[in-house]
Amino acid sequence: MTSRSRAAAAAPLLVLLGLACQEVGASIAVLLFPRVGPVGMVALRLFFSAAVLLAIAARALRDVELRHWRIMLGYGLSLGVMNVLFYLALERIPLGIAVTIEVLGPLTLSVVESRTMRGVLWAGMAAVGVVLLGGTAHGLDLVGVAFAAGAGALWAAYILMARSAGAALPGLTGIAIATSLGAVLTVPLAFATVGTVLLSPGVLALGFAVAVLSSAIPYAIELAALRRLRAETFAVLMALAPAVAALTGLVVLGQALTWTVALGIVLVTLAGVGAVRTAPVHRDAGPEGEVAMPPSPS
Predict the structure, then answer these.
(1) In angstroms, rounded to a whole number, what is the distance separating the alpha carbons of residues 25 and 9?
(2) pLDDT for residue 52
(3) What does the pLDDT average to over 255-281?
C-alpha cells in the first residue's frame, strides 16, 4: 500500500477524530458554565479561534474587498448568535440531544435542496426521531430545545453564507473573518454578564483548549480530509455528529440517555446520512461550502 493510499484509508478515521475533538471541546465548555456562563464561553472560544484562524489566513486577508463585507457581516452574525444559542442549549439539555436537534437545520436544508421523494423519506425518518426525543419521560427543558432549534436554523443560514464566502474568498479567509466578527459581537456581552472572571488564567487556558478542540483541530482535519475524500463521503461522516455527541456526553459528562431517546438520535443520524448522500453538491463553493453537512461551527 502506497503512502497516498494509506492516507486515503486513514481519512475517515481523521474525520471521526475531528468530530470527537469537537464534542470533547463542547463538554469542557459545559464544565466551564458555572464560572463564565454560556455567553462567556462562546466569547472565549471565538476570540481564541479568531486569533488562530487570522494568523493562518493573514496573507489572504489582503484580497478582501469592500463588496465582500456584506456577506461577511451576515456570516459573522449568524456564527456568533448560533454559538450563543447552542451553548445556552447545552446549559439546559444533554449534549447528544442538543446536537441532534441542531443537526435538523442543515438536514432540512439538504432535504429541501434535494427536491426528491427520497428527501421526503429522510425528513419523515428525522421527524420520527424527533418525536422519540421529545415524546418520552426524559424531562427535556423546552427552553433548551428552543435554543438548540434556533442554533439549527442559524446553522442552515450559516451554510448558505459559507457557500457565498467560499466562492468569493480563498481557503480559511471567510471563516477567519466571520469568527473575528463573532468575537467582536460576543466579547463585550461576556464582560457585561460575567466581568473580569474571563481574564482568570485558568479560565483563559480552558477557553483556549475549547477553541483548539472545537474549532482549530476540526477545521484542519476538514481541509486535510477533503483532499483525500469525496465531498459526499465527508458529508456522510459529518452526519454522524449526533451519535458522537451522545457518546461523548455519556463518557465525559455522565449524561446517560433512555433507550427511546437513543433510538431517536439514531434515526436522526440515519436520516442525515441518507440526506447528504442524495443532496446536490455545490461545485462553485470553496472548502467551506462543498459538503451538504459541514462540521458544526457550534
Answers:
(1) 26
(2) 86
(3) 81
